[in-house]
Amino acid sequence: MPTMVDVARSAGVSVATVSHVLNDTRPVLPHTRQAVLDAVEELGYTPNTLARSLVTARTRSIGLAVSAISNPYFTEILQGVEASALEHGYSLLIADPHDDPGHERKVVQLLHERRVDGMIVAPSADPRDLLAYLGRHRVPAVFLDRIVDAPKSDGAPRFDQVCAESAEPTTRLVGHLAGLGHRRIGLVAGRPGLSTTRERITGYRHGLAAAGLPFDERLLVHGDSEAAGGERATADLLSLAVPPTALVTANNAMTIGALRALRDRGLSVPGDLALCCFDDFAWADLFSPRLTAVAQPSRDLGAQAVRLLLERLAAPDRPARTVRLPCAFVHRTSCGCEERPGRNEQPEQSEQSEQFTQFAQSEQAPMPRLTKGPSRDRRRR
Length: 381
Description:
Radius of gyration: 25 Å
Structural class: alpha/beta
Strand order of the largest sheet: 2-1-3-4-5-11
Helix content: 25-40%
Number of helices: 12
Largest sheet: 6 strands, parallel
Number of strands: 12
Shape: elongated
């Protein structure tokens, strides 16, 4: 097996120069760097990662703590994290905290003990132990998908964070259904304590207010961000004396649960109940009817999290940032509309958002504005 000495001899440079090129620890003239890289390629030299980490105090690894197994939404985010990490020469260590605060603390400690350079974490609904550990050990970290309200004494956030817009897209879903004549619109919300749950409830209430509809607390139920919870919550809504005529489900797992509850009662979508959901997913257009949904830029969220973490590693003292990426409306037929051909226009971003120009979804139609549509008596129960 070729060694660093062999590379140095082939390139006509010192072993120290080879080390500087491979570890990026000192500037090297371009022609010298290229000679070393050519020798590495020719000889098939493989750097000793362990030895390099001893020199640089870096392992070139990132810890990722997300509930990828229990939540399919995070699977696409994981793909974005992995692709971006590999592009920048980092490996990935993955742990599943199962959205459990106690387990979350354990897996973060485990990743830290593996000497990862930094972490990307989708925090649980109660991240107090997580925050305490990361702060005590000064672990570079980025919070993904869920925002943690843990500002420093000066009011600035303690950690970098990246998420998708949640409130405004939910407002628009409610507005779309109200524009179709619905007056009793239910929401199957996620797990209490999560920022995504709070923001989507806020968006739901804003959508009702914008449409001139009263808020009825009986129409807001929690499905705990899981399929079983979504099924139970939808069943509760359908059992009301005056059930909703339209429903917004706040994530993909709860959408599946809602469809099960409707199927078990022999109800059809959108004939008996119109449905819009948060999260588009690979098989959403395979249902009959095809699901109208808000699509989150999942892979871009993962890539942006890596970008923020690498910026933090390069400049540990820079101010923390919260980045929000826009969502897109995918107009299909479960809302009760005719399918619209063409592409969706991506909504404008808020001032906190950063443009990710590569995000584009096919089969997406423009996000409808809130308009007063004809009332549908057959949908009023």
